[in-house]
Write a structure and sequence with these properties.
Number of strands: 17
Mean pLDDT: 96
Low-confidence stretches: none
Helix content: 25-40%
CATH topology of the largest domain: TIM Barrel
Oligomer: single chain
Distance between the termini: 31 Å
Number of helices: 9
CATH class of the largest domain: Alpha Beta
CATH superfamily of the largest domain: Alanine racemase
CATH architecture of the largest domain: Alpha-Beta Barrel
Number of domains: 2
Length: about 350
């Protein structure tokens, strides 16, 4: 890889983002949430670059959402203070780290059991810190979370009695609705799911706790969730890049993230092979799509090869040509790479280390 700004000199495969498109997406999302009257706490599990997270905060985000404590540590080291870990932090090693981390950031942890509450309480008390907690509510995805309503209230009241903990509110991930294609059905299911979260927050307040945070809303649902009364913050983050999967879920931001590959073989007039396989991009949620090659589709991803089939015989595509692919799904692509290149008008403007890749703990 050369850093002289000449994109032609880049070796492949390489992950890159169109800075103009990404910056426009960030501005549009920020404006949408601001107009909707909700805070923006973008999830960075599929972004992983602290410099981009800082851009989001500069654009108006109140902080970030992370999937893991180790991701949060990376973001805090970059200067981001308000961080929600939208996951259970469980076990003596992790809860000790969480208590120590509280000295460096205004961390919020998700929780769905008293067992977890008790161990975090003990660690927080030992470290003489106070940790904010959001009760995770299962709004229909049936992964983590307590049932909405009274079970959420009971957990919140139990947490509030423990030293070192403060109930900050509730959160959910309504991911089960994101793939619904019919817009009316999707909206109805989303209103039902998030409605149960809002109702749980109201019940917690009636029980005597403040619970100011009502957090939800991924990229695939943010246009609905941001407008639901009672929601206070939205976690959509991947929409700054968008991709083939997000587009299929109704995300309207521009696709700004690409993998550039080189044609390494033309075994037939209707087949081309590139040097990017599933170790550079993958089709776990959706297959990447080639740009600028009419009638071409990516049909197979092997470890180091991507095979494209062409609808008609094409001799114009030659060995050595470069092709950009709209990524299939950002969350399963970015973590494959060490670096993300920021390009503007066909030239490399910046190179970012993907510092939060490999952060699994």
């Amino acid at each position: 890889m050369t850093l002289d700004g000449d994109a032609v000199a880049l070796d492949t495969p390489v992950l890159w983002v169109d800075l103009d498109l990404m910056e426009r997406n960030i501005a549009n999302l920020s404006a949408f949430f601001r107009q909707a009257g909700v805070s923006w706490r973008p999830h960075i599990k599929g972004i992983k670059v602290p410099e981009i997270a800082l851009q989001l905060v500069d654009a108006g985000a109140i902080g970030v959402t992370c999937a893991k404590l180790s991701e949060a540590e990376v973001m805090a080291a970059a200067g981001i203070r308000d961080i929600l870990i939208a996951n259970q932090v469980v076990g003596p090693i992790k809860v000790a780290r969480l208590a120590h981390f509280r000295r460096h950031a205004e961390v919020i942890a998700a929780m769905d059991s008293m067992e977890n509450a008790q161990e975090i309480s003990q660690a927080a008390s030992s470290a003489a810190v106070r940790i904010r907690i959001v009760v995770e509510v299962d709004s229909g995805m049936h992964r983590s979370g307590v049932k909405p309503g009274q079970p959420a209230v009971d957990l919140a009241l139990g947490i509030a009695e423990l030293p070192g903990l403060e109930v900050a509110g509730v959160m959910t991930w309504e991911g089960h609705v994101r793939r619904i294609e019919n817009p009316d059905e999707k909206k109805a299911k989303c209103l039902e799911a998030v409605g149960s979260l809002v109702e749980s927050a109201e019940m917690i307040r009636t029980a005597g706790l403040e619970a100011p945070i009502v957090s939800c809303g991924g990229s695939g649902t943010h246009k609905i969730t941001a407008l639901i009364p009672g929601v206070t913050e939205i976690q959509a983050g991947g929409a700054i890049f968008s991709d083939v999967a997000y587009r299929s879920w109704g995300v309207e931001t521009d696709c700004s993230l690409f993998v550039r590959a080189t044609v390494v073989s033309r075994p037939t007039r209707t087949r081309a092979v590139v040097d990017a396989g599933y170790k550079a991009m993958n089709g776990w949620e959706a297959m990447p799509e080639p740009r600028g090659v009419p009638g071409a589709r990516l049909t197979v991803l092997d470890a180091e090869h991507g095979t494209m089939e062409l609808d008609s015989a094409d001799v114009s595509l030659q060995v050595g040509d470069r092709i950009d692919f709209v990524i299939g799904y950002g969350d399963t692509t970015i973590f494959l790479h060490d670096h993300l290149l920021g390009m503007r008008n066909g030239r490399v403007e910046t190179v970012w280390d993907i510092q939060a890749r490999g952060k699994l703990t």
